[in-house]
Batch of 4 targets.
Target 1
Amino acid sequence: MKVIIDGKVIEAEHQQTILDVARENGIYIPSLCDHAELTPFTGCRLCLVEIKGRKGYVPSCGTQVEEGLEVKTNTPQLRKLRRHILELILSEHPSACLICAEKENCDEYKSTIRKVGEVTGCVLCSNNKHCELQDVVEALKIDKVSFPAVYRDIDIKRTDPFFDRNYNLCILCGRCVRVCHEIRGASAITFVHRGSEEVIGTVLDKPLLEAGCQFCGACVDVCPTGALTERALKYEHLADTEAKMVCPLCSMGCELDVWLHEGRILSTFPSAEGVVNRGQGCLKGRFLIRDIVGSEKRILNPLIKRKKEFEEVTWDEALEFAAEKLKKYKAKETAVVESHQTSCEDAYLVRKFTSEVLKTKNINSEPVLSPVSEYQKVARNSHSNPNLNFNLNDIASAEAIFVTGSDIIESHPLIWLNILKAVKNGARLVVVSPASNLLERYASHWIRVKPGTESLLFGYLSKTLLKIQTSQEIPQSESIQRYKKQLDKLVTSDLKGFTDLDKESLEEVAEVLADAAPTVFLAARSMGVEAFSALWNLSLISRAALLPLSLEANERGLNALTSGSSRGKTIDQIVRSVSDNEIKALFAVGPVSLPKKGKLEFLVVQSPFMDENAARADVLLPSATFVESEGTYVNAEGRVQRTHKVIELSENAKPDWWILTELAKKMGAKGFKYRNPSDVWKDIRKGTPAFVKATNAHLAKGSDVFLKEEQNGNKNMAPVKFTAESVATSRKFPCVLIADFGLDYYRNLTLSQESRGLGLIRNSRSVQMNPEDAEKWGIVDGDPVQVISENGKMDGAAKLVADIPSGILKVHYLLSEKSAQSAASLLFPSDKNKDLKNVVPAKIKRG
């Protein structure tokens, strides 16, 4: 359609607002409450415009264009009205600096005066120079405020992690409330009180830690003033440069904007231009990167252990020492531990070093507890080769979403945002989980299932679905007929034994899967191959896309590098071989929890950080962090992304690719003549068909490049053995404690220990109890409980049982020897915790 704005004829689309069309065409209309990703609020009234033929003024942010509409945005009456509105806003906002006649001459770098407790002007505010209110005051040329100033004298909220809430600076634009509700789905904050007392807050004025806040920082990022401010920036200088990077702290690969001052990271923000995240992120990418880089645990110089003490040496000495020692061991006596958080270039050289220099097959190339690994095992078992790639829009546009696993909001926050989009567009959400989480609030069906019985649940759903579908809706292949016969043995009356479903509820869920199209299955956590096989078959019967979600930053990239080659060993097999004295020399690039049993003769640790295992090393090679090097990563979608160096190397730390190249040369290896990561990438593309489209030129431009999947298009039914592996309780041990795989780490650094804020968030979680059990033992919400690990025996496969005397929950971890080393290395970051004598304070939550 055509509209006329300020005499200019403009082409516009249906459902666009006047404000959107004006911005697209370079016409300035001031606004403080409007945001491109949020629904119109029409609260600040600064965007008022005149429309020919209509009385009065209308808010342009909430008025859609119509054919032939004539709009005026800058008349004398509008300018006067906007100035009065803005002066009213400024009468309750500290405005001394905004209207100061000397503000052009003010030294913007006087950051020390920000140490005062109250913000009374822009130079005291850490949002200075990044404040939309400043921009609007400048645009409307406000030099005085005609109304008397009112200071609201609201207590500043400083008790929660990462950011302060100073509502004395709040202009009640509602952006933070809307982003928390509409985009993040948390609804942790809202408007409270009315009239002059109105303020943003939480229910009953609870801290954000207790109000369901995700601490994603989205509210801070949309705030147009300094009302919500990152605490770490309060005493900092203003940024002098900015950069972009790809975050490797989860598997989504969000693009971040980085603020720097004199080459030092001040803060990171989700980039509005990021193709994956589009301005959204999570607490780790938003608040932790600065802490990671500046950690006191950083190893900054090569170290060699002599007489049981570390000694700083040159790189040449450290590499020479490591090379000479490693040469003495046979191939079968050596092993390598890699990390699924390193770049493709670094991972390629780790594997090349393992196979060509050490000539060993002892490398943990397969990630543990990975849905992607389980998916590929099931694909091989069913002689299928489907495409692993997907797009986040596939989730946002689904009509039904079936989620299995634990808290996807914590493990895959960007996936959750797209689930929420789909639900808000009318999609049905089915959640299969043993414990309650935020997904339950939005689920049409939440199925509580006992851990270890998921394959039975998926089998019952498949059986029900086959009954209600016609033969035309399901291919009548031989594998389906075999599977039908297997499903006939399942008795529906047994369903109540391991879920909270009855027959009617089961049929309701089956109807959802039968009627919706497209349907997406999301596997967010490891369940075991049998359960995954049953889920695979259920997705085929539902004609749904099954998407396994990788857990770590570059799991898909390392998986592509492994394709067609030996998959090596699992981490627990390597650790067991160390215990059995079969492996005598270990080269650790990734995190590993080494046993006290067994004598490891030589340990090389290549890592950015010191931990208990690094302290046992004979040689420490300090590697660069992700912000100090460039490289290529593949996110959960299969999207290939290049990230660039943001800051210079810390002291004597070196990139992983450089260390491996130089060490290989010291050991006399050929074929390691790499000058930079681009040289390594050329080698990767030559030998890895999945990366054939990902040229250096494409990646440098940020082009949309995905892994090339060699698929045959087949998805056959997978063989399944229906078994119930649920943990059996007893009179002595009547409760089951469900543990999960923690993802809060980078390389060998435990983030919840490094960041006090993250530690508070993770440790504020409650112990959730079955209401019937809580009633039986007289435990109510909020009762203090201690979860005590006090049994170090390794007996019984991953069984966690509990005894509750006098309100104390004593948890005994009983692990089989086969799974003990794997569980210890994954779940417990230190030898102290691995002994299972860790005391964790918590609170009971019934549910």
Note: The chain is about 30% helix and 15% strand.
Target 2
Amino acid sequence: MKPIKSFTVSPILPQKLSRLKDIAVNLWWSYNVEARELFRQLDMDLWEETSHNPVLLLSRIRQEVLDERANDESYLYQLQRVAEYFDHSMNKTTWYQNETRFNQNLSIAYFSMEYGITESLSVYSGGLGVLSGDHLKSSSELGIPLHAIGLSYQSGYFQQDITIDDWQEEKYVINDFYNMPLTLQIEDNGQETRIAIPFPGRTVYARIWIARIGKVPLRLLDTNIRENSEADRKITAELYGGDREKRIQQEIILGMGGIKALQLCGNSPCICHMNEGHSAFSGLERIKNIIRKSGKPFYEALELVKASSVFTTHTPVKAGIDIFHPDLIKKYFADYVKEVGIGMDELLGLGRINPGDAKEEFSMAVLAIRLSNSTNGVSTLHGEVSRKMWRSMWPGVLTEEIPITSVTNGIHYGSWVSGEMASLFDRYLGPQWHREPADFSVWGNVHKVPDGELWRTHERRRERLVGFARSTVQAQHKRWGKSQTDLERARNVLNTEALTIGFARRFATYKRATLIFSDPERLARILSNRDYPVQIIFAGKAHPQDQDGKHFIREILQLAHQESFYQSVVFLENYNMNIARYLVQGCDLWLNNPRRGLEACGTSGMKAAANGALNFSTLDGWWDEIYNPDLGWAIGDRKSYDDENYWDKRDADTLYNILENEIIPAFYKRDQDGLPRSWIRKMKNSMTQICPIYNTHRMLRDYMVEMYNPAAERSLKLSGDNLKLASELANWKYKMRLHWKQIRFIRVESGTTDGLSVTSKLQIKAEIGLGEIRPNDVELQILFGRLDSDGHIRDGELETMQVVNSESSPNYLYEGEISGWESGLNGFTLRIIPCHPALANPFEDGLISWHAA
């Protein structure tokens, strides 16, 4: 039965506790230990029951508890301290404000399909969302002027239930946004703000929920409102749910609706950062707005949007990219192409690797790349993988020159370092570990921490993890209706002093969750050694459609029930940020064994390292960048194998051998004080070398310097004088595309190559036909270097040739000189690339001509 009128009921706090509400509605509390403790102390059981949601806690707590706390001087003092620190955090001068090289009027829009800020705001599924959440937290602390856009999912991501027969089932819990750290955006007249997004034959409306992460506003768009049809109200129902049509609807709301939301708030962005390709339609909306405002044609507006956009890809395989059938694009963008003055084939071409292939589907990643000034992967290796993955977009361009770079991910330490470890850091590192986490000199002080203190702090966290795991397994057994005997067994699983291995992540098959079970008998012998016990705690979800991933979970659970494993193997259901914290803060060893090249970055191992755990991982993602034997252990090498069964067996054998012969002996080798000194030394090495690099403060500074600021400066140049330079560049590109095929190599001559030494110089002359293209529009380059066994120049060098007769069109004479040879078989070839001072890179349109061998 629908009500005549709906309204919100808010809790009433005693005046002395009024600041609790200010703190509760800003997610700053989620990464401040003392702030979280304020709410936990009100009612510890209710804090857990509400999934650490202070707004819901304050609405449910008994009035007498509030009245009691209002007269508790100790609690009031703690509240005052937290409130003062909160106010200071909101008003302090930041790194960004002190950086004179940045435009202080800059506004950056950050788009992501999901945000993992805290477990009580369930609009995330995994690593992508947690990275987005950490991005916002560091942006706030650094003062970067970021405005984030996402969707407010009614059900969020699914909740995982493990059935009594060990199968993952999904259930969807409705989010009550009125009892979350969110506020509705309201107009001056008191009405909820609405944005209108044109859909085929109708308009879809969305309201805006605002979450505040320190200084950064996150706007979540919600279509579940009365103005929409029942079908359209469900557009924002689930994260990654529904069919292809529901997905394109969500991505139109996120991208195009997100730009509209920012405009309504008076925050028209200077820069747009697309975190994955889901939000690429934002670029199309911006193009339309520029056309409306300036009257410029589509491709001139595109140049300005391209200049001011940044795209981060997190996906190392094309199968993980959102693609749409051309018919869906035609259905949802028929009116759009008419309004912006282009043909549907032109729009489809923007989302195709080969724009002229009518059979190719429309890729959101390709669209994002084509609409961006810069594209980056999320680790050095992932940058290399991405260049190979997308090289067909730039045929003829050397793989290493493909315009995709990398910014390695990091983590936000305030969110992931345990309270106990944070206190230890405060004592020996000082407050700078939190304020300036990228400062190597700060982390060098880890070596000043007494071994005994570090080890006891870590042991307390392991004890907490074991206690949490036991209570979680008991609750699961009760739900299944297990016997009292089974409940007693659950109460005694795991060992608070045993070497504890953590494995927690999405159960995609390439992550090989069951690799450690490749030889169950051998593993059973390792785990059941009474003198040197080892235990493994698993957690993670499989995508609802991923049957293979679900079978991996079942395999682990069924093994865990066996007599040889039940005491030492545990699977924690319904993996979320809370479980993640327990695991990374309490494990001794963090296990990660994906097939190399398929883990874009991975950040869980960074979180574990910051809490003193050691990493045991394949050389993939971030671990490939930093690994050395003083920090942890590597599974396998940097080779890949076509035979996956052979690959898995090889890595499993390596895993067992290192575990038995290196890791376990190091953990259990104790001195007369009962301390594993060599293990502790590795812990300290790990912290001092990993922590200063793999944090989101460093990451955000990299984005600011390498991505945001260059895009802002380029955008400013192109937008000046009524888009004069953008218009010139668009017309120049059109001319180059039109006439590029006229380019010809007429003749190439070189000096004698007989008797060349490593100090010799070689003169080269070339006559080039350019047709209607002028010499200042191109650059003629020599590529030279050693030849590999296939006769190809590998890792060659480039030298630019100079035009000698620039007025003798249509043919031009060029001269150049190369030197600096390596001994052995060498060679050279020539190529022509576009040249214009306004190009972000010469390969934007993929134009390149090589001399035919």
Note: The first strand starts at residue 108 and ends at 112.
Target 3
Amino acid sequence: MRKCETEDRRRQTADGTSNIEHPTSNAQRRHTHSLGWPGGFLLAILLFLSSSASAARIQEIVVEQRGMGRSDKAYVLAHVRAEAGREFNGALAAQDVRRLLETGQFSAADVRVEELGGGELRVIYAVQPKLRLLGRPRIKGVEAFRQSKVRKWLAMDDGDLVDDQAAGVAVRAVIQEYRKKQYATATGSWAFEVVDKSRGLVRLTFTFVEGPRSYVNAIRVEGNGEVSHADLREALKRPSPLNPWRWFVRKKYDRYELNEIEANVRRLYMNQGFMDVDVAVTVDEDADEPGETAVVTVREGERYHFGSVRLEGVTLFPEARLQALLVVREGAVVSLDAIEATADRLDLFYGDRGYLNAGARPVLLPDRERLTVDVTFRVREGELVKIRNIVIRGNTRTRDKVIRRELLVYPGETYNQSQVQRSERRLSNLGFFETVRVLPEPTADKAQRDLVFNVAEKRTGQFMVGAGFSSVDNLIGFMELSQGNFDLLGWPYFTGGGQKLRLRAQVGSTQTDYELSFTEPWFMNRRLSLGFDVYRRERDYSEYDLETTGVAIRLGKALPFASRINLQYELESTKVTDVSDTNTYYYLDSYDFETDTGIPYTFASEEDGVKSALSLSLTQDTRDNPFVPTRGSRLTLRYTVAGGPLGFDYDFYNTGLQTTTFIPLWFGHVLNLRTRFEFIEPFGDTDEVPLAERLFLGGGRTLRGFRYRDVGPKVIRPVEGSDVYYDRPYGGSSLFMANIEYTIPIIKGIRVGFFYDTGNVWSERFKVDLDDLASSTGLGLRLDVPGFPIHIDRAWALKMDDDFTDDDNWVIWIGYDY
């Protein structure tokens, strides 16, 4: 047996070789700013230059090239702020170097100054252009994967700009994939071959050594007395015992995960007061075959409690204010999480009040006789700074104002760490950027900082084409084109304005939808969203066909507490055509089966009218994810008025309330509770709610286990000479529905669910009878495919709302629940 190394081996990088050298002379190193240099040395140079050369003026700016290839002097000067005739500023020079590197054109960049006498300086920007690939990279030594897959991971192609850093990143990406497949000893290297030195053209060859495949498929814990195996499950990265997937597939651990497991177990114990715990992970070093067993050996030691808790270095604020922030309490069981949470809260306290570089360092003093740990938080209060400028970098498509309007900090304000972090999250949540990083940059004034937001753009457009099957619509084909960062006036690319555009067409056996949707989230540069929808929908029901064509204009505003209010005006033309059954039916709730009499009803009349409606809705949404939530809730209250002063053919009002709550349980299990109330009533010259506006239940997105739209009021027709009746749903005026669903994750993107549905529709207005509800139960599969989620349910009807309701056991549908 051998003990695994406890150092974090994931920090190890792949070995690489290069046959290109880039020497730098001693003269070039003098008075140089370079981001690759150690931060302390760079700061010292900056201070020296800023102090000694602060009064010196720039007489000349020179661009110097190193290495191979060509660099454009005008391009370099366009990215620096230094100008001839102005005073030299070391801090701005360092920013110039960073800006040159951020262009992606240079492997290295630095700046130095030469004194010319008389207070004049020559500023020299030295740049090393990146090399350009001639042809696709060559790959050697790969057998475990297809070369096409490795090329995808390398993400390099003919004509790309490369250097040693880019090649190293590419190799690490491939090695990471090898480790996922349990090739723990795989290594990679690269070599450049110069083709044209003057143009900087090279060929690149990657060489990989795969090594043997090995993994650990079992972990055993020894020595744990105070912490149970169940408590250790997550630290050991074991799948949930309730996860059916583990019944068929055994989890495999690569050797690098063992270091993480060792750290997890140690931290778990230290969060429960075992400060002297010793954890070691060993495996059999003689086994050549895959499928080894790892042994986690634990020596727990004694449990410690907190002794005294003190603060040191607090001078700017009353100590009592900071004492209130402490999570650590005297006498409580020692916990690393509590210590770190306290330090973070102290850091944030100072950061929110403008004190940059503030921090709290916990110092622990254990007493092994009393089994206590005294904690002292040594506070560094930092310096009070204000924001001078806010700089946006890296936005190649997104307009500056789209970014700035999301920020909660402004030039001239005192620095506020919480607002900076919230601004960073808001930019990330836009979905426009791969990464968002915030960096306070020094200025000539120590009491001011430039706040720099570095963003990396990502694709925001999407084009999807697909086909599927639904138990209601049968075959479905769809096409969708969307742009999440649209710019209506941004010719010729129409991106970067932060607007939303969506074009969608869906064609099925029983329905056809076309939709154009546009949203401007900052109308008139205010936090008002303005949008419109243009749509056409065709539905083929068994009794009739329904065609709707309309346009809607939306105005919305965000409110506090994750709430939003929306106002919408809709103008919609409705046609009911191809009525298939013109016989006389009778309302079921009025029918006398002994005399075969009742109040008559007919589908014979075809409707053709225009609805003019105004809707007001209030929504509160605290879900953690709009597509596959695991916690939080969404509540929507809506009121709609059609006709009346708005004119046209229909007069009615509609009131609705929908709630959904997601409760996280254990092992990723989630309990989902949904309710829906809706009421509709005509007024004025309208005696009956139009057929297209009536309420129905039954089917995949409402009550599973029942035929589509079959729960609720019906009309029936007797078959002459028999006791058989035809029945048709005709919709109601009051609706109640509730749903409980329990989901269990299997693997990423796949869940199973168990549900119970209940509800009904009534023809009377404002009626909800909880003793008259249909209900069903069942189980299903959730395939969380991004953009194309699939739900498959098997349902059993438990109680029918009447004798004429039909069941439908299988439900298949595509789309998210909103």
Note: The CA atoms of residues 210 and 788 lie 36 Å apart.
Target 4
Amino acid sequence: MITGDQLLIKQINKSIVLNTIRKKGIISRADLANITGLNKSTISSLVDELIKDGFVEEEGPGESKGGRKPIMLMINSLAGCIIGIDLDVNYILVILTDILANILWQKRINLKIGENKEDIICKIIDLIDEAISNSPKTVKGILGIGIGVPGITDYKRGIVLKAPNLKWENVELKKIIEERFNLKVYIDNEANTGAIGEKWFGAGKNARNFVYISAGIGIGTGIIINNELYRGSGGLAGEMGHMTIDINDHLCSCGNRGCWENYASEKSLFNFIKEKLESGEKDEYLNVDNIDRLDINDIVGFAEMGSSLAKISIEEISRNLSIGIVNIVNTFNPDLVIIGNTLSGIGDYLLNTIREYIDSKCLVSRYNDVAVEISKLGMLDRAIGAVTLVISELFSYPGL
């Protein structure tokens, strides 16, 4: 009789073997045994199961170290497909990937700010349908759907508790999507998905402790401590965009006053420009008629072409973002800060300003260096992170 403990140990060993193959890319059974410490017969049995399950394939003979050439193993990337969704205030990005997060198909559509919840959910469903119709034939089909949402989420139950910029409250998004598609669905805060994506596949791969900052229409933070996502006691950690910078100033969409994202987000950058234009400031490139049709890339482009107002607005937002990052570095003492989402498009000027503020104003950085980088995954980081919600579960419990 096989006991529960034996099944658990087998499952753990299977996960170890699968993850070792993933990390190494291509490896022999003998090297698997040496790296994992499992005996050769256990390795052989587990590998045979993983091949039967469709997660591992034999690549062919490798280099001989004396004797027969070993048969090399690698992940079968097309064991199945995964759908990742980055839901933002003004767009939806959907990607279809293999089980190693290689993108097979993607589509982005724009949303009108303030669009109603029902219409947005209908658009998400239509995009999932489109992703499924574009998926190649695989062993296990669609393995799951991950969704990153700009707000406070109950990630265990898949409920969007509050998304101030979307004006959503207590939306059972996981239930809605699972009932429609009969697939496993994972919901998380978009800054958390950004952090997870960077940890598995991006700039955070080699950092044990880092903070990912999603600086877009709003600001969110995903916190990795000792290689794990920090969620806090109720799973709600990371809402640092709503730390108070000025208690007597702007009313925020969350209901508080003076939140950091009111001064350091894409939304605040455009509000800053509008206030300047409405007060009578003249600019060769920016005016009250065109400002609502522009995005951050336009502002960066105008700054490079000589727009004084574009330059001033970028300087203002970069300083304000840097002030909040100094507080974060003082709080968490990370190895690395990663900037993602639309404001990362400011590029070197933003990075240099953040580094300057950390060097001059941050207490802990005098004793411990902290690196600052733009997301290596670009605007795909949160969608890839949403895919990783599924991948991490898959590689923990292969075959389930």
Note: The chain has a mean pLDDT of 92.
